[in-house]
């Protein structure tokens, strides 16, 4: 699978990338790549390059980005109707 992480907090993005990689390695889940970015455009431009079903971890609130996680999810669905979308947040509420 191809794994995308949309997270604006660098620490959280690295932590999530590490956790996803550990889960894949432990479960022997094959993947092409794990891409962590704070820019929705980077993800949207690479969807067509995926050879496996992608999974998207999208932060609900992205600073410095006009589109938020829910809006990005709508755009992803237009391009990729079968990808798996997971919404994440660091907000406790």
Protein model, in words:
This protein is of the alpha/beta class and 93 residues long. The protein is built from three helices and four strands, in the order βαβαβαβ. Helix 3 links the parallel strand 3 (54-59) and strand 4 (84-88). The protein is globular and about 35 Å long. The mean pLDDT is 87.
Unreliable spans are none
Give the helix proportion (percent range): 25-40%
> In which order are the strands of the major sheet placed?
2-1-3-4
For the residues shown, what is the average pLDDT? 87
* Topology as a string of helices (H) and strands (E): EHEHEHE
Beta strand %:
15-25%
Shape: globular
Structural class: alpha/beta
Count of discrete alpha- or pi-helical segments spanning 4 or more residues:
3
Task: Give the terminus-to-terminus CA distance.
Answer: 31 Å
Main beta sheet? 4 strands, parallel
What's the gyration radius in Å? 13 Å
Number of strands: 4
